[in-house]
Amino acid sequence: MADERVLYRYTPSLAAAVIAIVVFTVLSALHTPGSLPGYIMQSLLILVAPALFAATIYMTLGRIIRATHAETYSPIRVNWLTKLFVFGDVLSFCTQGAGGGQSASGDPDKVKLGENIILGGLFLQITIFGLFVLVSIIFHMRLRKQPTGESLSKDLSWQKMMGSLYVVSALILVRNIFRVVEYLGGRDGPLLRVEWPIYVFDALLMAATMAVWGVWYPTLIRPRGSQIGAAEDGIPLPSVQMIGREHQSGSATKAGRK
Q1: Measured distance CA(240)–CA(246) in Å, rounded
Q2: How many Å apart are CA 163 and CA 51, to the nearest integer?
Q3: b vs e for 156-185, b when ≥16 Cβ sit within 10 Å of the residue's Cβ?
Q4: What is the DSSP letter of 152?
Q5: pLDDT tens-digit profile of 33-83?
Q6: What SS3 class is residue 149?
Q7: Which distant-in-sequence residues (6+ apart) come within 8 Å of 179 by Cβ?
Q8: Which of 45, 83, 156, 209 is the most exposed place for a label (fewest CB within 10 A)?
C-alpha cells in the first residue's frame, strides 16, 4: 500500500492563496518611495532576515549531532550548542534592528549612530557564524575519522545535510560581508548610490539559501518514521506518518458514525 501523507488538516485552496498574494502585492505597491514607515519596514526586514536563516542552520547542526549519536565529537556540549548560537543570533538580530530604526529616522546624527550600531550587529553575526562553521568542521572531521554506527546508516543523510549546511553558511557569510562593506562606505558610498548590488549580493544570495533548503531540507537527517529532532529544540513536531495515521483514524471514526 502506498504511504499516504497528509500534511494539512484541511484541503488547501489554491484560489485563496493566489488572492492573498495579489492583495498583499497590491497593498505593497501602494507604498510610495517617500513613505517613511514603508522605508523603515523595508530596511529592517531586508537587514535582519538572514538572522532567521541562521537560527535554522544552528538547530540543524544540533539535530545532525543527535541523529548520528556523536555528541562526544562536538567541541561544544550539544545541550548548549543550539542555545548558545541562537542567543548570539538573537542579540545580533536585536542590535541590527535597533540600528536600522535609528538609520531610517532621517536625522543625520541618528542615521550615523544607526549605521554604527548596524555595523556592530553585522560584525557580531559574522563572528558568531565563523565560530559556528569552525565547530561544524571540527565535528564533521571527527565523525568522518571515527564514524558512529548510526552515521553509517544509509537511511540517515547526514553527509548531505552537512554539505547543504556549509553552502547556506557560505551564502549568508558573503551576504553579511557585503552589508558590512556597504555600511562602511557610508550613505554616500558607491554601494548605497546604486540599486543592483543589493539584488545581487543580498536578495539573490538569500533566494539561493531558500532554494538549497528547499532541496536538502533538515528532515533528511531523520530516518523514515523517526522522531529524532522533533523535540530536542523545544518544538514538538509530530512525524508526517503520525499525522497521516491520525487523519485516517479520524476518517474511519466519522465513517463508523455514519
Answers
A1: 10
A2: 20
A3: bbbbebbebbeebbebbbebbebbbebbee
A4: G
A5: 667 777 777 777 888 888 888 888 888 898 899 989 999 999 999 889 888
A6: coil
A7: 47, 118, 122, 202
A8: 45
- Decide: helix, strand or coil at residue 109: helix
Task: Give 125-149 pLDDT, tens digit per residue.
Answer: 899 989 999 999 999 999 999 999 9
Cβ contacts of residue 187 below 8 Å, gap of 6+?
A: 111, 115
Q: Is the C-alpha dihedral spanning 82, 85, 87, 93 positive or negative?
A: negative
Who wins on pLDDT, 65 or 111? 65
> What would the grid cell of residue 139 be?
565535528
Give the burial string for 76-109 (b: 16+ CB within 10 Å, else e). Answer: bebeebbebbbebbeebbebbbbbbebbbeeeee
How far apart, in Å, are the Cα atoms of 234 and each of 58, 83, 85, 174? 14, 11, 15, 30
Residue 155 phi, psi (nearest 5)? -80, -10
- CA distance readout (Å), 32 to 35, 81, 154: 5, 44, 54
CA Rg value for the chain = 22
